[in-house]
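Give me the 3D structure for Glyoxalase.
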Amino acid sequence: MDQPTWKPFIEQNVVWLYTDDLDRLANFYRDVLELPQVLDQGVCRVFQVSPTGFLGVCNKEGRPRGTKGMMFTFLVDDVEQAYAYFKAKGVEFDGPPNMLGGRTVYSCFFKDPEGYWLEMQEFNDPRWPYPAGRGPRRG
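Predicted structure for Glyoxalase (139 residues):
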């Protein structure tokens, strides 16, 4: 079999979370986490997380429900400032930022109204593909 000569380039990505209360979950991501809503499809709403990353919340019949085995991580440039900012907006964290993963991950955790685990994280690993002009802040 011949090897293909064309390889797809994945330009963007969307992670989908399912809920029975679309308004409650969409309001959390739009109003509390302040993610811009870029699309409203009626039963689904899509929020922009980064230039190429999106988070969709849906209330579609027949889609899986439940939060086990799922966590969405927001990579931020300063976990401590993100923690203080969102805590002031009423987000209840399970604790303050903590260094994990052999001192390469600095993060804090909380849940959205549906019960999905969310993480604010800084990678502190020089091997990570940081945005242009930035590297690890702490080591």
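The chain has a mean pLDDT of 88. Let me know if you want a second pass.
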